[in-house]
Amino acid sequence: MKLNKLALAMSALIGGMALTGCDLEGTDGADGTNGTDAVAQSITLDQQGRYLSGIFDESAAEIVTFDKETQQTFVVNANSGKVDVLNTQDPTSPTLVESLDIAADMQTAGDVADAGDVGAANSVTVHNGLMAVAIEADEKTDNGWIAFYKIEDLSYLASVQVGALPDMLTFTPDGNQVVAAIEGEPNDDYSVDPEGQVSVIDVTWDGSNLATNLTQVGFTDFNVGNSRNAELPEAKMVIDGYNATVAQSFEPEYITISEDSQTAFVTLQENNAVAVIDLANKTVERIIGLGFKDHSIPGNELDISQKDGVNIKNWPVMGMYMPDTIASMTFNGQTYLLTANEGDDRQDWLDNVTDQASCEASGYYFDASDNCIDAFSAKDYYDNDNVTLVDQEGNPFAATNGGFGEDNELYRLKFSYHTTVAKNGGTEFSKLYAYGGRSFSIYNAETGEQVFDSGSAFETLTAKKYAEDFNNDNAENAGDDRSDNKGPEPEALTVGKINGHTYAFIGLERMGGIMVYDVSNPFSPEFVQYVNNRDLTVNPDDNTDSNNDGIKEYTVDAGDLGPEGFKFVSAEDSPNGKAMLIVGSEVSGSTTFYEINVHSFSAE
């Protein structure tokens, strides 16, 4: 399919708002019940210590978790395929205890014939003296494993083989189950595309003996022609994938569990949806479509060009929330879901698809260089042969037309060709569908209704702090570089309770840093703090491979880059009696410990 017309509604929507006029909270949902705290409080995050792997931009510190009994922190080191164990009895000075070589342990136990068949570690979780680790196969489209360790002596216990590419996993609050997102990503040319699944492992553990029972929860019933296909909320989600069934298109990413351990909520990131899993019956209860964010309305402004500095304004663009991390909380007896709206595309695998007919039949664009394209920008494909940009009356826009901005900003934005075509019903587009919401959102888990979105706050707050250095990349200093492509990319997210208040901590993968909100009332969250130890005067990529081992060392003074995983530790479980946030940053390969200090004051 060739794109013949890109009809963009140019109106007052393009007029935009100045930076200082942005509504930091976006459009709120209906007012909820106000909290009744007798004492108001605020918190601040204060950095205590850092553990540095010394490895730059190789995913040496991703997912982190904490064991309250041993006061150890476990860090997934995807670069080595191991789990680093840190002594964090003193959070100001974390030290490496050892690195668990999971592949070697599996081979020694006879669970695999060759350690070389075992790939990277992707996630780690602990409960009651038991640790579980998600391990992919060396060939990621082969079945992976969940490996179990006894924390007390770090001894290997057993592994359970699951589906292809197990990613995030977590224990249920009662510790009776481990639930894992089986992502099922395709290989690099889409010749193999496993189905996404959710693994539910029943666990019996007495501190010494472990018994497990695996149930794989799949999505084949939702395939076209099957019994549950009509249940899909297609208007609010994305169903794509190259030559893919619905089950192949679904790639479970992250999981949160309800407080009663009965329900798992699983992000289907590329599908802009959440799967709800009944953990008692081990079935898919329903699929929640997250809908789309309208960037043309006040409060939802964004910067869409990497060439114009700070230019946060309204545009005829819809954001596909596509959350990575998901967390949950309870308010007035109701479960609410919090999402970090990163956005994601399938372009890495589509790049190697060279069959034009199949590419176009799957709803993607086939370019003159024999590439299958979804992540599309008009500037890359604007010529008389394939793209004509017209207004609603069909009149072509001149290259300097102010409707696209003084520097043709709208030409630069990366959007999904597949979704934009599908949602506009053809090749004349009134709105573009871009990746990510550049925000965090809160949803009623029962109804799927969005009750809050942070709107343009993340870009606005980082622009106020960094000016034209905002929307930076995470591996080099390049201000405004990510504005045309998902902006700050909120990825990590967790929640924690402190003195009756519930706080959300959201990590910005590209710009770096942590956004803190008081979400005690999910209908009206309040911004608390933005903290970022990144030093933009230091170039993190200005280093050498002094060991000649192919691994670049990291310039530690550049700060933490690419926050990937968060772990909240309550004051009751913390080594120093104060609540703590542990941050794993994949680009800088660092694990950082923040003390959370509470500041109370009269509510009157």
Automatic annotation (TrEMBL):
Gene3D superfamilies: YVTN repeat-like/Quinoprotein amine dehydrogenase. Residues 470-494 are annotated as: Disordered. Residues 1-20 form the signal peptide. InterPro entries: Choice_anch_I (IPR055188), Mesenchyme-surface_protein (IPR052956), WD40/YVTN_repeat-like_dom_sf (IPR015943). Residues 479-489 have a biased composition (Basic and acidic residues). Keywords: Signal. Pfam families: choice_anch_I. Residues 59-373, 409-596 form the Choice-of-anchor I domain. It comes from the Bacteria. This is Choice-of-anchor I family protein. The lineage of its organism: Bacteria, Pseudomonadati, Pseudomonadota, Gammaproteobacteria, Thiotrichales.
